[in-house]
Amino acid sequence: MNFSRILGLSVLLSSIGLAGYAQRSPYAEAGVGFGASTISPVVALHKDWSLDKKSRFLIGSGVRFTGFYANNVTLTSAPPNLARDPASVDTLFAPAPNINALNLLITLAVNVSPKIQLGFSIDALGFSFGPTGKPDFVASGNRSTVSASPTRFNVLLIDNNDIGSLGSYIFSRYRFSNKVGIKLAYQHLFNELTTTTTVQTIPEANDRFRVKSNLAYLGIQYHF
Fold first, then answer.
1. Beta pairing partners, 64
2. How far apart (Å, rounded) are the C-alpha atoms in residues 148 and 199?
3. Spatial distance between the Cα atoms of 216 and 183, rounded to a whole number of angstroms
4. Whole-prediction pTM value?
């Protein structure tokens, strides 16, 4: 999903001055992503602007809550200089992580027909919250129990440079009526835990660990 994240960042930078475009009615969304031993409930509020007179091309923003609840998850060293070298990666094993993220989002979409829309959306900036858990830290064959909680702040910085918990979606939406639509999507999640102490020391100090997930997503939208 590197392309989506790069494009999402460019959209964020170009979205300043949207007041000059035609506004469309806001809409709410509720849905859930499903993966192997993973569930991701989503609630969002969106606002779009038309980029052309026929309202075929849209840019949007909004706010999205995303949950990440899973079983037996392995998270690996998150900082990019560690993540890109397998020899530098340590792991956390979390039996039941509970990570909740509230993020500002960016959307780019095209209306293929009055009923069908294709596009993508990406989280850009926000914060995460959730309980402190007791995952196992694994390094050089040694295992110890540590304390960890969701990384507090979420920032889109492109791929492994990202911080915190962020989601991106490639989606299609079918609109049954002026009010209701169904959304199908490929959901790509970054989720992070930060340990309460610096548990990784080699090759450098680190307390952030990440898991990447790909899920099938189904949601319903209501247009006000």
1. 44, 103
2. 10
3. 11
4. 0.89
Report residue 87: phi and psi, to 5°.
-70, -15
Distance CA 73, CA 104 (A): 26
Contacts of 105 (CB under 8 A, 6+ apart): 44, 46, 60, 61, 62, 63, 64, 121, 122, 123, 124
Tell me the pLDDT tens digit for each residue of 67-109: 999 999 999 999 999 999 999 999 999 999 999 999 999 999 9
Q: Is residue 47 part of a domain?
A: yes
Taking alpha carbons only, the member of 68, 36, 75 closest to residue 193 is 75
Residues 6 or more apart whose Cβ sits within 8 Å of residue 14: none
Q: How far apart are CA 79 and CA 120, in angstroms?
A: 26
Domain residue limits at 202: 2-13+21-164+183-223
Start-to-end CA distance of the chain, whole Å, equals 31
